[in-house]
Write a structure and sequence with these properties.
Blueprint: E1 5-9, E2 15-18, E3 21-22, E4 26-30, E5 40-44, E6 47-51, E7 54-57, E8 60-61, E9 65-69, E10 76-80, E11 83-86, E12 94-96, E13 99-100, E14 104-107, E15 114-117, E16 120-123, E17 128-130, E18 133-134, E19 138-140, E20 142-144, E21 147-150, E22 160-164, E23 167-171, H1 175-178, E24 180-181, E25 187-189, E26 212-214, H2 219-222, H3 229-237, E27 242-249, E28 255-257, H4 276-281, H5 294-301, E29 309-314, H6 325-340, E30 347-351, H7 355-368, E31 372-374, H8 381-387, E32 392-396, H9 418-423, E33 427-431, H10 446-453, E34 462-464, H11 467-475
Parallel strand pairs: 1-6, 2-7, 3-8, 4-9, 5-10, 7-12, 8-13, 9-14, 10-15, 11-16, 12-17, 13-18, 14-19, 15-20, 16-21, 26-27, 26-34, 27-29, 29-30, 30-31, 32-33, 33-34
Antiparallel strand pairs: 19-25, 20-24, 22-23, 27-28
Length: about 475
């Protein structure tokens, strides 16, 4: 069984699966009790069992792959993040640039042959294997960060830069370092995240000298439309730490920058049901600009001399019904675009408070090495930390915190304190600190704004609709 293909029998011509993405769990329950004849079962995030000549490249598995064998001794069972059991025999068989982010787990099966691997449950004869990566945990009686059962004799590099139970391997091609057999017990392998910029080759923004984030480009202050190119350039001109913008996934697998209305529509259209071209055809911003894409924003913010990052707000979909599917797609596609442009140092994320989204994107953010703040302020700092999704909380001054001078109209209505996040060893950013009334998410009286600015040295960043005003106040601290 596979997320894309179950069993594929090759021939003299190479069978190819390229650039496929599986997001659904692959779960197999096998019951051979009472049967005298049994052989093997295999489950893979992309393909269960390729046969003979095969080529897999550029595929991504983001879901868990699980085999549960009810019979304790049969059959042979193999689970892999990409391939369950590789049985190819042709010299042309190849596997390259495939990624697994899901947990791979197998229980039961013949002792010693319950093969579980981040990429392959069992690998026997493929001859060209390169640039594949596993970022998921692996659990089984014969488990490997790359492969469980290894019968290959080739010397190709299988997986770059992995850490297995604390031991680092620059190139995991040696059978003894990445196939970890055990006839008893369960081996759990932790594969450490490695930065895409370990050699420092990716471009970086300059030092802005402040922690100010311009909310929607500072549109309330500048007069430019929010989420506009002009607004982004305004924030860059102020040398803000970041410009906050909202992202949505479109039906043509792109990501647009916009702030949807109360019905989650942009120009009267649901973004996930329409293409960028269709949304743009329905109307421009009030300054005549078309709705921008994430790619366009990245091109602007990465210009020479830029000190400003993009703070990408993953917006939740709540109309016509609550759906985590499209925010998850927006985040995952945004990561792909960012990596393709080498913009990892120019982008950060903040995620909706919905745990159904954060829990699904956390591992991908960590794997990419891109910070992601979680806007969950309804749980304590200790509970936040125990979730393990991120060490950065991005909370609302007005609704998450209880800070504020008694009798002021903008006193916080929440339950959180800054001290509890300090004590938990978490990073904390806040939104919004404004110079005047207008946003229901902002504190704006002098005394309440200063309660937060007195903690400026601790805060990771501070977001405002009035970034120029806030920068001046910070300069006078």
């Amino acid at each position: 069984m596979g997320g894309i293909v179950g069993f594929a029998e090759g021939s003299t011509d190479t069978r190819e699966i390229e650039n496929c993405v599986n997001e659904g769990a692959v779960t197999v329950t096998v019951n051979t009790i009472g049967h005298s004849s049994y052989h093997r079962c295999a489950a893979g995030g992309i393909i269960g069992m390729p046969y003979s000549s095969f080529s897999l490249s550029g595929n991504i598995n983001r879901a868990d792959v699980v085999i549960r064998n009810i019979h304790p001794t049969a059959p042979y069972a193999y689970a892999g993040g990409i391939v369950g059991q590789e049985t190819g025999s042709s010299a042309s068989s190849s596997f390259s640039t495939n990624l697994n982010y899901g947990t791979v787990r197998c229980t039961g099966g013949v002792s010693g042959y319950c093969g579980v691997g981040g990429l392959f449950g069992s690998i026997s004869s493929a001859t060209s294997i390169s640039s594949n990566c596993n970022y998921g945990s692996v659990e089984g009686t014969v488990a490997g960060a790359v492969a469980g059962v290894n019968a290959c004799t080739f010397g190709a590099t299988v997986c770059n830069k992995i850490t297995v139970n604390g031991d680092n391997y620059a190139a995991a091609s040696n059978k003894n370092t990445w196939a970890c057999p055990s006839s008893t017990g369960t081996i759990t392998l932790t594969v450490a995240v490695h930065s895409d910029d370990e050699d420092g080759s990716l471009r970086k923004p300059g030092d802005p000298g402040n922690k100010v984030v311009a909310h929607r480009g500072g549109s309330a202050e500048s007069g430019y439309p929010d989420n506009s190119r002009a607004g982004l350039r305004y924030a860059m001109g102020l040398k803000c730490y970041a410009s906050e913008c909202d992202i949505y996934w479109t039906s043509d697998n792109d990501v647009i920058i916009a702030h949807a209305d109360e019905y989650d529509q942009i120009n009267g259209l649901y973004p996930w049901k329409n293409t960028v071209a269709q949304i743009r055809a329905a109307g421009n911003l009030r300054n005549g600009e078309t709705i921008p894409t994430l790619s366009e924003f990245i091109d602007i913010v990465m210009k020479d001399g830029s000190c400003t990052k993009l703070m990408l707000d993953i917006k939740m979909i709540t109309y016509p019904s609550t759906s985590p599917t499209y925010p998850i797609k927006a985040a995952q596609r945004a990561l792909e675009i960012i990596k393709a442009k080498g913009a990892q140092n120019f982008c950060e994320f903040i995620c909706t408070s919905y745990e159904s989204v954060m829990s699904q994107i956390a591992s991908s953010m960590k794997s990419a090495g891109i910070p992601c703040g979680w806007m969950e302020g309804d749980i304590s700092a200790s509970s936040f930390k125990s979730r393990g999704y991120t060490d950065w909380a991005n909370l609302c001054t007005r609704t998450h915190f209880k800070l504020g001078v008694s009798g002021t109209p903008d006193k916080g209505t929440g339950y959180r304190t800054i001290t509890e996040f300090k004590n938990a060893g978490l990073k904390l950013s806040v939104f919004l600190l404004d110079k005047q009334e207008g946003s229901g998410n902002a504190v704006y009286t002098e005394e309440n704004v200063m309660l937060y600015l007195n903690e400026y040295s601790y805060l990771r960043c501070v977001c405002s609709n009035y970034p120029s005003w806030l920068k001046k106040k910070i300069a006078n601290l």
